[in-house]
Amino acid sequence: MSDDTIAQPNRRDILYIATGAMATVAAAGAAWPLLDQMNPDASTLALASTEVDLTAIVPGQIITVKWRGKPVFVRHRTPAEISEAENTPLASLPDPEADSKRVKKPEWLVVIGVCTHLGCIPLGHEGEYDGWFCPCHGSTYDTSGRIRSGPAPTNLEVPNYVFVNDTKIKIG
Ligand code: FES
C-alpha cells in the first residue's frame, strides 16, 4: 500500500480534532474542582481525629475532650482503680468484658462519655463503683467504664485510639 492510498486529514478534520481535544481539556478542567470539592476539607479531617496530651493529667484525674461532637473521657487511673477494674469477676458484670480488652495501658482509660441508656453524660468519680454515675436514670459504671447497675444495657464505648508516644494519644 502506497502513501497515496492513505487518507490524509483535510483542514476540516483537523478542525474537528482540535475542537474535540479542547472540549476534553475543558471537561477535565471542569470536573477537577467538582471532584476536589468532594474531598473532606482540612477542618473536617482535623475533627476526624483528636490528639490528647496526657502529661498534665494527674493520677485520679479525668478530663473530657471533644471528638466528632461527642465527649470522650480520658482517665488517668490510680493503682487502686486499676486493681478494682482488673479484679472484678466477669460473671458479676451485666456486659462482661475484661479490663485488659478495654485499655491499651492500665493507667489510661479512654471511653466515649455518653451513657449507653439514652445518651446523657455521666459524672466521673460518682456512684457506687467510683467510675461514673448517670444522673438521668441512675446507671453506674466502674473504673473500667463498664455498666454495673441501672438501665444502661452496655459498657461505655471505647473509641479507636492509638498512643502516638508515651504521653500522647490520637483518638480517631
Ligand atoms: S441516660 Fe443514663 S441512665 Fe438513662
UniProtKB/TrEMBL annotation:
Component of the ubiquinol-cytochrome c reductase complex (complex III or cytochrome b-c1 complex), which is a respiratory chain that generates an electrochemical potential coupled to ATP synthesis. One of its GO terms (molecular function) is metal ion binding. One of its GO terms (cellular component) is plasma membrane. The gene is petA. This is Ubiquinol-cytochrome c reductase iron-sulfur subunit. Signal peptide: none annotated. It comes from Methylocystis heyeri. InterPro entries: Rieske_2Fe-2S, Rieske_2Fe-2S_sf, Rieske_Fe-S_prot, Rieske_Fe-S_prot_C, TAT_signal, Ubiq_cytC_Rdtase_Fe-S_su_TAT, Ubiquinol_cyt_c_Rdtase_Fe-S-su. The chain crosses the membrane at residues 14-35.
